[in-house]
TrEMBL record:
<dbReference type="InterPro" id="IPR036259">
    <property type="entry name" value="MFS_trans_sf"/>
</dbReference>
<feature type="compositionally biased region" description="Polar residues">
    <location>
        <begin position="19"/>
        <end position="39"/>
    </location>
</feature>
<feature type="transmembrane region" description="Helical">
    <location>
        <begin position="381"/>
        <end position="403"/>
    </location>
</feature>
<feature type="transmembrane region" description="Helical">
    <location>
        <begin position="176"/>
        <end position="197"/>
    </location>
</feature>
<dbReference type="GO" id="GO:0022857">
    <property type="term" value="F:transmembrane transporter activity"/>
</dbReference>
<feature type="region of interest" description="Disordered">
    <location>
        <begin position="1"/>
        <end position="56"/>
    </location>
</feature>
<feature type="transmembrane region" description="Helical">
    <location>
        <begin position="249"/>
        <end position="266"/>
    </location>
</feature>
<feature type="transmembrane region" description="Helical">
    <location>
        <begin position="287"/>
        <end position="308"/>
    </location>
</feature>
<keyword id="KW-1133">Transmembrane helix</keyword>
<dbReference type="Pfam" id="PF07690">
    <property type="entry name" value="MFS_1"/>
</dbReference>
<feature type="transmembrane region" description="Helical">
    <location>
        <begin position="100"/>
        <end position="121"/>
    </location>
</feature>
<feature type="transmembrane region" description="Helical">
    <location>
        <begin position="218"/>
        <end position="237"/>
    </location>
</feature>
<feature type="transmembrane region" description="Helical">
    <location>
        <begin position="350"/>
        <end position="369"/>
    </location>
</feature>
<feature type="transmembrane region" description="Helical">
    <location>
        <begin position="320"/>
        <end position="343"/>
    </location>
</feature>
<dbReference type="InterPro" id="IPR011701">
    <property type="entry name" value="MFS"/>
</dbReference>
<feature type="transmembrane region" description="Helical">
    <location>
        <begin position="63"/>
        <end position="88"/>
    </location>
</feature>
<protein>
    <submittedName>
        <fullName>Major facilitator superfamily domain-containing protein</fullName>
    </submittedName>
</protein>
Amino acid sequence: MAGSGVTEDSISPAATPGRPQQQFEVQEPTTSTIGNAANLQGDPSHDENEPDDMAYPTGTKRWLAVSSLFAAAVLHGLDLTIVAAAIPSLTNDFHTLDDIGWYSSAYSLMAASFSFVWSRLYTRTSHTSGPKWTYLAALCIFELGSLLCTVAPTSSMLGIVSSPIVGGALIDWLRTWRGCFGINLPLGAAAIVFIVFGFKGDVGLISRTAHHLREFDILGTFLMLPAITTFLLALQWGGNRHPWTDSRIIALFVLSAVLLGAFAWRQRVLLESRATLPPRIVKMRSVLAGAWFTACTNATLAVTEYYVTIYFQGVRGLSAMQSGLMMLPMLIGITVGGLLSGVGISRMGYYNPFMIAATLLAPVAAGLLTTTGLDDPDAKVPSLLGFLGVAVGLGIQTPTIALQTVMKPADLPMGIALLGFGATMGNAVWIVVSAALFQGRLGVEIAAHLASAAGGGGGGAGAAAGGEVLGNLTHTILTGEVGLSEIRDLVGGDRLRDVLLGYDEALTQTMYLPLALTIAMVVGCVFTEWQSVKKKQS
């Protein structure tokens, strides 16, 4: 790294091509400050014209920088899947089924709402040391959220997600779900320390950051957030807490539509450089198709993991750790599918065949998961999960490769942000929908199986007694007086099989949702443009 002083030689960037451009910012005007000015004005071509004088960290600082990125990547990976393993434990602790959809959707909701803001902030500070402080700010906010989840006294404070095996091990070891969120604290702290010492900072950045923030569409972000929230509330409450025709449900849908309309109008009237979601990006065919495809694939995996974990712990009676191990074939399958598609795309030069393969195979795998039953062999569900993982893995990275092929480099960050928005919104919306479906069917199916058993017990007083037990048990389950994994302990041996059959049937009907999502992947597959990756590279 260069020294801290400014010499005569450092006045000319061309004379010192290996030094970081921060040294030249005290000279006005210079090549680097002119490039920054173009960036502030929203010039979409600044990537192509920037001086090639970037100095990369070496030695210890390089490894600190890489370690910080690795720690943050681990955090991100954990926070996508861990809560599924904790769902039965969370319902046991908080005694409510109403919030199971929000444990994951709240995280995805906020991630979707702010994905464009972070993308803009990274892009507009990319020619200064701004990304370092942006990265640190994001990590600090994440750490605060993890701390709040770790000490949460009620389920309304939760809404963050992580990884099935790690989550299951922590729950079994600590005898509580809180370790799933507490593990984020040391990992995040390590990432912060590594990035502080691994990346060079700029103490004069504050004034420029204030200028960047004034360029953001803050109002657009805060129009999108309540629009998505009201939409999710309507989906969760409709048909369960209130009828679909209830005035409150209708009002939520109307309010969501009005807010989304206001957001869309604001994007049209703002300058291209200030819009949260520039219209020209949205109009690109591969961007919209990729966002749809990504939303379907990610929601398929999220909903499947959510309810198969509940199946393992609630119906099969496995521990959190054991259920995490049963989910391992799906994770391995995703990795294998991704590797196969990566190698295949590099050889063939086209990504579309792998989107087609995923679109054909994923519905088959998801459909087979709806055929599981209480008496199936233990290996059936993990095997089908592995099949689903490979099928979805074949196409899961193709939208990103498609955008890298068809988009200009200056537009790519916003295109990738839109894919991230599709992924997180898909998770948020469809997990809430699946939770509403599961809650609606759980009581109905358990009641039906208990009533059938009571009706076959000889009628008369036996049937009346069975009906009383049925009513008490169904009320206990639906009001959340017991958690999902405590139902087995509540029911005696005579009734356990009937309850588990109802439980299994409710989960099976919920699994039709991932099947529908895999079928919907065909829309994104059909509308993605065919272009050669090799041609773009040449």
